[in-house]
Amino acid sequence: MKKLLKGLLPLFLSATMLVGCSGGGNQGSTGGGDSGSSSDTIKIGTIYAMSGDKAAIGENILRGIDFAVDEINKAGGVNGRKLEVVRGDHAGDAKTGKSEAERLITQEKVDVMMGCHMSTVTEVVAQVCQQYSIPMITAISTLDKLSDAEHKDYDYFFRLCPLNSVYVEDMLKYLKDSEKQTGEPIKTVAIFTDKAAIGQELIRCVNLFADKYGIEVLGEVDYSGGAADLSAQVLSLKQMNPDAILCDSYVSDATLFINTLKEQNYQPKMIVAKANGFTDPSFISTLGSAANGVASVVEFNNDLTNGKEINEEFKSVYKVDMNGHSAESYTVVWLFKAAIEKAGSTKGEDVKKALADLVIDSKFEGGRNIVLPYAKIDFEAEYDLAGEKHYRDNTSASVAIAQIQGGEWKTVWPFDFASSKIEFPAPLK
To answer: Model pTM?
Structure first.
């Protein structure tokens, strides 16, 4: 088996100064500490974009982390020690993410790591964590290959969220099931997406599952992230005239896309996004009524019963609802709490083993309910997905579909726990 750790390039320290908490590190190890550490805090390293065009996503993720840390600390912390968040800023760049991971581990002495909302950054940060034996959980990165056979040896890396394959197959299931409610079949789709890894993964997964659901892919329209003009791309989609557009974009591009559809007076029957920028809180606030009708995969929505109480508390602090990103990052903090308590230690090897054995059923012991649209968290050591081996993913993870109606996300699928019916066609105004 290919050893991805072999031949790692030397890691250089970032010139970026620490943003957020600071303090003395743990003693007696290269990376994190242990239960006998001189530090009175357990340090959670976070690597997300806090600058650049992805900063809005990073800010939202960090809200979920801060909210969980605050409530855990108020309840007495973890084994009598408070949690401390030490932030790193990858600014949307993999090289920066790698150097930030090195800094957080070697200088700030973090015990565990969270990140990153870009799968390309997550992969290189996972390499660093593996080298230093620092347990890492990604709340959000969905690229399938992060847990494939080439990454089998990354045994300090765990994933909470569903994989892209799971997201995309559920999008196609939704299109197929929608006929039961709307009376009109969805037979054709076009794909609109970023040229980056997230987009190529959407294309791959749609083509992997489309035939299974009797859906024809008419074509793919992509663009370079941070686009200033999407007129040509929208014109291409208009000429294809699919029943539905499947899309994946970061928030600035997602907003521009919907505005360009409006400018060209083009209204497909359905628009279904794979979350990302479409579910960022700024998407609706920026677009107003123009956002109505857009549907998206969601990992959390405020009308899902298991997270309602926690969301209300979150909203009272941050003045916005949780979304999938903040709910998943919130959950990862609780997972680290559970694993460290199970291990009785913050040593990397001990926490890794605790995570591998951890099973959360409905709620965290002595804590909160699982706020996501499923009732179990269990990192599967090895399993098959679409004919390929994968490792250390939360195979219980699943998603729902919500649609923006009247300026709010309303769960519309699966129908047995939907709060609203599908608005059809997508009412772009």
So the answer is: 0.78
